């Protein structure tokens, strides 16, 4: 899908490095076709040694030499990096932003030019190639651009295309923030195991593996989670007793409320970003 296209990764933090690892490790792109940038020369040296990619501290040069430009900077510095590279951007390049909480409208307000823009919301699991990524496009993308973006982010997990940009806030509230909810659940299950007499290490291992196994079973069978739940619950058994306690404690409602609250906060931050990017021009 990438067919030897030159790729620039602007910002080699955790997510930028995860993408480089995924692209090279899956053979989706050759190391020599990737250039990554960062202000930390020691970081660039480390990435070059590990993956064999090209490196640079010159963002404009990296953008000029590339057909696909991935902005993997922190949200608070994205506007300045976009302005720094704006003259190098044109319709010949596919521009992808993974900056959390920055809507396409903010990027468009900052650059004020027609570009093939894509916004991507990955999550932290991309660092172990199990990311859940949502992709949304601007109004000027070409027919093949979405498939190119999917090829990039499928190298670090699984991706889905979202036709409505406004749903990216919901994606942020669900899968973007979701790992934090699961970490809390795993921690609580481990605490419960310790309370019942298990060692901390055993309880944590069993909790994490149980979540991993349940998710894998759901993905591979394609069954509704309610059906899988019913397969675990025997009449008058232990699982139904535990489920009754969870329902009584409002677990389902609490998780729904958590996603709703995170979505609303993402929407508020996005509106702030649009105003900020417009004012800083």
List keywords for this structure.
globular, alpha/beta, 2 domains, eight-stranded mixed β-sheet, 281 residues, Rossmann fold, ProC C-terminal domain-like fold
Brief account:
55% of the residues lie in helices and 13% in strands.
Question: Can you offer a commentary on this structure?
Answer:
This protein is of the alpha/beta class. It has 2 domains: 7-163, Rossmann fold; 176-261, ProC C-terminal domain-like (ProC C-terminal domain-like fold, Orthogonal Bundle), CATH 1.10.3730. The chain has helices at residues 14-25, 41-51, 59-64, 75-85, 104-111, 145-154, 168-176, 178-195, 200-221, 225-232, 238-248, 251-279; strands spanning 7-10, 34-37, 54-56, 68-71, 94-97, 116-121, 131-137, 157-161. Strands 3-2-1-4-5-6-7-8 form an 8-stranded mixed sheet. The protein is globular. The mean pLDDT is 94.
